[in-house]
Structure formats: structure tokens, C-alpha cells
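Propose amino acids for all 208 sites.
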């Protein structure tokens, strides 16, 4: 972290010097134009930066790794004879509350909510550690919701295609319809109640 901070200070210093010496240069001539500092470092030498003005590219789409499937758990659900009906909404979220030991690096609370779309009933949520992938949290939360409610959903709704990807193998195994929908009204209402209960100033969506 110290080396990264030092590189950031060197980059800012270079840009400040260039800005002071070239007052006629418009570094932000358009909505997508910005000054870009590129660093290179030779072995044993201090990092050197080059300043260019370029177009900002679109960020790459996030890739959510597919989690390992607990086949034994799925087999238990399939042989349990749970009825299939209803629609659930599922989403990953971050909260402003911090967790971590006294001398540990703190992290935001994160988890997954599963909510019955018709009744608004919140099924058992799944809280995750910073090391947990979003995909594994989504799968674990949905399996826990099925087991606790003793019911298989007819349809599962998620907010983005990235969140749908890790659930597709589960949809195939448990035979539910997976739907991507930008609007998850029952879940958003439950999330707002959860944030207020946790004392968060606002909600933080699930990216990443």
C-alpha cells in the first residue's frame, strides 16, 4: 500500500507540473476525454509516468465466476417432494455497516436477500464474508430459501444477466424459470427496511 500511495503521489505531481506549464491545454475537452497517466517501471528503477489525453473506454462487463454446485444438497431437495409454486426475487447487496475484528481490515456488510414477490415475505437471508463470491452467495441463499420454506419457486427473478449466470445450472437442476428484471419491487422494499434496521444512511446496490 505504501508503494501504491507513493506512485499515486508521483503521478499527481507530474500532472500538476504539466498543468501549470501548459495552461492552454484542455484536458477535459469532452464528456469522455480525460488525462491518462501510464506508469512503467524498469527493474530496480523508480516508476516513470507518461501523460496522454485519451478517450475513456466503456468498462468491461463484470464476470461472475460460476460457483461449485453442491449436488448432494440438490439431490436432497429433489427427493424431498417440495411443491413448486410462486415467484421469488433475489439480489446481492452491500450495507454501510462495517464488520471486522479490532485489528482486522474492516469490510462492508454484504449478503443476499430472497423475497416472495407476491407476499413480500423475506426468506432466510444469506450474509457473506469478503472472500465469498457473489455467485456462491446467490446459490447458497436460494438453496437455503428453498429448504427453509420447503417450497420450490416456479420462477426466480434477478436484476442483471450477470446475476442470472451463476443460477442457470441451479435453474436447470431444480426446473424453475429464471427471469432477468430491472424492477424487483418486493425485494427493494425489503432491502430498504433492512438498511433502516441496520442504521445505514442508504442502500448500496449489488456490483460485483
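Proposal:
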Amino acid at each position: 500500500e505504501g508503494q501504491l500511495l507513493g506512485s499515486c503521489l508521483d503521478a499527481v505531481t507530474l500532472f500538476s507540473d504539466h498543468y501549470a506549464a501548459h495552461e492552454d491545454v484542455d484536458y477535459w475537452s469532452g464528456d469522455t476525454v480525460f488525462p491518462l497517466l501510464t506508469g512503467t517501471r524498469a527493474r530496480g528503477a523508480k516508476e516513470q509516468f507518461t501523460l496522454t489525453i485519451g478517450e475513456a473506454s466503456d468498462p468491461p462487463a463484470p464476470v461472475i465466476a460460476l460457483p461449485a454446485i453442491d449436488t448432494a444438497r440438490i439431490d436432497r431437495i429433489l427427493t424431498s417432494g417440495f411443491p413448486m409454486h410462486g415467484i421469488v426475487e433475489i439480489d446481492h447487496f452491500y450495507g454501510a455497516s462495517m464488520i471486522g475484528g479490532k485489528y482486522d481490515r474492516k469490510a462492508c456488510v454484504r449478503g443476499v436477500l430472497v423475497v416472495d414477490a407476491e407476499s413480500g415475505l423475506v426468506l432466510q437471508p444469506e450474509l457473506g464474508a469478503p472472500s465469498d463470491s457473489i455467485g456462491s452467495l446467490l446459490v447458497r441463499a436460494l438453496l437455503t430459501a428453498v429448504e427453509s420454506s420447503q417450497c420450490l419457486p416456479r420462477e426466480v427473478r434477478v436484476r442483471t444477466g450477470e446475476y442470472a449466470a451463476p443460477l442457470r445450472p441451479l435453474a436447470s437442476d431444480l426446473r424453475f424459470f429464471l427471469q432477468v428484471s430491472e424492477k424487483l419491487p418486493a425485494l427493494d422494499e425489503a432491502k430498504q427496511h433492512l438498511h433502516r434496521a441496520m442504521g445505514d444512511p442508504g442502500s448500496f446496490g449489488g456490483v460485483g
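The mean pLDDT is 83. The first strand starts at residue 33 and ends at 40.
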